[in-house]
Amino acid sequence: MKRTSNILNQVLSPLLRRAGGGYLLIAFCICNLLACKKTTTSPYPSDTFLKVYSLPLAKGQGTSTTANSVYSIVSDQSGYIYTYYDDSLPGSTATYSDASSIAILKTDKYGNIVWKKHYAVFYVHGQDAYYYNFICNGQTLYLLGQDTLNNWTILKFNCSDGQLTGQIPLNGLLPTGSVAGSLYVIGMTLNNEGDFMLSSWYNVSNGFQAPMLTRLNTDGSVKWSKSDFPIPSLHPHESFENIRCITETGTGDFLVGTVLLSLPDSNASYEIATFTMNFYHFSSTGNLLSKDSLPGGASIGYQNTSFYGRFYNSDGEINSFSTFPAPQGGYIIVADENYQFSSYRLKIFKTDNSFNVLDSAFIAPPNCNLYYSGIIQKADGTIVVSVIDEALPLTNNFGYVYEVAPDLTIKKIEQIGLTSQSVVINGMNATYDGHIIMSGVIQKNGIDTNNLFILKTDNNEHF
After folding, report:
1. Quick one: average pLDDT of 219-243?
2. In angstroms, rounded to a whole number, what is the distance separating the alpha carbons of residues 196 and 437?
3. What is the CATH number of the domain that holds 127?
4. What pLDDT, on a 0 to 100 scale, did the predictor assign at position 121?
5. What digits encode the pLDDT tens for the residues 28-78?
6. Who wins on pLDDT, 256 or 89?
7. Cβ distance 273 to 240 under 8 Å?
8. Is 446 left (phi over 0), alpha (psi -120 to 50) or beta?
9. How far apart (Å, rounded) are the C-alpha atoms in residues 146 and 155?
C-alpha cells in the first residue's frame, strides 16, 4: 500500500515539525549553525548530513514567524534533493499567510548547492507539509500553488536547471452547484500509475463545505472527479468536511480520510461542535465502495460581548489525521488532537478492517504542544512521524521524530534544537535509496534571520 497524501490544512493549518534519530552530532551542528560532514572514520555513508543554508527567508525574524517559511522536500532517482521555501526579493512584502514569492533549492546527495531559483510571480498559501504538494517525477518538478490572480495551478519546473516550463490550470474543476470561486486545492500526490490525485474543497450553494477528489493526468486532463460525497443529514448548512489523507491500496483503490465538523446546536451564546473522522473507499475509477466513521471529539464554545472560550471533552478535537495499513490487517491512524483549550498532542489508533478501534495511545510529553509535520510508513509497517513542539511557556519551537511500531509501541528518537534556538521541521520524505530527508527552519535565539536546513539520514536513521 502506498500513502498518497502527505499533503493540507485543517480547520486550517497550525504548524509543522519533525526530528531525527541523531544524537550529540545533531545538537553540535545546530548549535553552531554549521554544515556537518562525516569523517573518513564514520561508520555511516558520507552522504548523510545536516546542513544549514544562510538564505533570505520571507518570514523575517522572531519565533512566531518561523512556522511556514520552508515547505516540502523531495528527491529524484539520482539522489538530488529539492526543497521549496518562501523568499523575499528586494521590495517584496510577504505576510504570515501568503508568500510574495517562492524559491526552490537544489542540492546534490551530499548537500552541496547545485542551484537556487526565485519565482516572484507565483506563491503558495501556508499549506501543511504532510500534504505532498511538491513532486519530483522523472526530470520534472511539480508544485501546487496559485498565480498572482489567485488561480489554482500546478507549476512545472525542469529538474536540471530549475526553469519554469509551464503550468496546469485547475480552476475548471468546480462542480455544478458550487459557489463560484470557492475552490481550495489542499494537496497533490502521484498515485502508483503516475496520475495526480488532488484533494480539494469547495462551497455548495447552501453553505456546506464539501470535499472533492480528482484524478488528473500529468498533462492536466481529468480522468474523473468525485464531488458527491455523502452530505451529513444534520444541518448540512452548518457542516464542513475536508480531505485529510489518501491511502492507495495494492489493488489501485483509494482510502480517503476526511474530517467532518458539524455545528448542530448553536445560538447567540454558545455552539456545540462535533468532529467525525470519515473513511471513504473508492475504486480506481472513482466509484464509492464503502464508508466508515470514527468519533473525532467535540467541544462547546461560549461567546458573548466580553468572553469567548472553548471547553473540550476528554477526547478533545481531531482536526487532521493520516491513515496507514497495519501489517497484520486493519489500519493505524495518527492524528493531531486539540484538548484542554489550546493544547495539542498526537493520538494514535489501531483498528480492524471496518475501523473498529482495537487499541489507542498518545504522544503527549508534559508542557508540550505537538503538531505533526511529516509522516511516512516504512516497509515493516513502522510509522515515522516528525513533529513540532511549541514548548510551554512558548519561547522556542523544537523538532522531534517518533517511531510508532505496528503494536503502537512508541519510541522517541531524538530532539532537534536547543533552548537558544527555534527549530521548525516542515518537510519529510523518503529517497529512492532508503534515506529519510527533512527540511525546515532554524532560528538562533529567536532574533537572527531564519536559516533553511536539510537533514538526511541513512536507511537506519543514523546521522
Report:
1. 77
2. 22
3. 2.130.10.10
4. 61
5. 233 333 333 333 344 445 778 888 887 766 544 444 444 447 788 999 999
6. 256
7. no
8. left
9. 9
User: 343-351 and 331-339 as β-strands: parallel, antiparallel, unpaired?
Assistant: antiparallel
CA gap 231, 241 in Å, rounded: 9
Range of the domain at 112: 2-456
Distance CA 256, CA 277 (A): 10
Question: What are the cell numbers at 169?
Answer: 490550470
Contacts of 268 (CB under 8 A, 6+ apart): none
Predicted local distance difference test score (pLDDT) of residue 392: 55
Number of domains in the chain: 1
Please spell the DSSP secondary structure of 113-176, one letter per residue.
EEEEEEETTEE-B---TTB--EEEETTEEEEEEEETT--EEEEEEETTT--EEEEEE-GGGPPT
C-alpha grid cell, residue 34: 554549521
Report how far residue 295's alpha carbon sits from residue 300's, in angstroms, rounded to the nearest whole number: 16
Q: Is the dihedral of CA 59, 60, 65, 70 positive or negative?
A: positive
With 0.85 as the threshold, say if the pTM is over it: no
C-alpha cell at 37: 560532514
Q: How far apart, in whole angstroms, are the C-alpha atoms of residue 73 and residue 82?
A: 6
Cell of 124: 503558495
Residue 306 within any structural domain of the chain: yes
**Residue 151, class by beta-carbon neighbours within 10 Å (0-12 exposed, 13-18 middle, 19+ buried)?**
middle
Sign of CA dihedral 448, 102, 389, 311: positive
List Cα–Cα distances, 83 to 113, 402, 439, 440, 449, in angstroms: 11, 22, 7, 9, 19
Asked, for residue 48, whether it belongs to a domain, the answer is yes
- What b-and-e string marks burial along 68-81, b requiring 16 or more CB atoms within 10 Å of the CB? bbbbbbbbbeebbb
Residue 462 belongs to a domain? no
How far is the CA of 227 from the CAs of 201, 252, 380, in angstroms?
9, 20, 35
Question: Of 439, 314, 438, which Cα lies nearest the Cα of 364?
Answer: 314
Instruction: Flag whether 250 is in a domain.
Output: yes
- Cβ(246)–Cβ(278) under 8 Å? no
Amino acid identity at 346:
L
Task: Please tell me the distance from the alpha carbon of residue 62 to that of residue 148, in angstroms, as a whole number.
Answer: 27
Alpha-carbon distance of 242 to 412, in angstroms, equals: 30
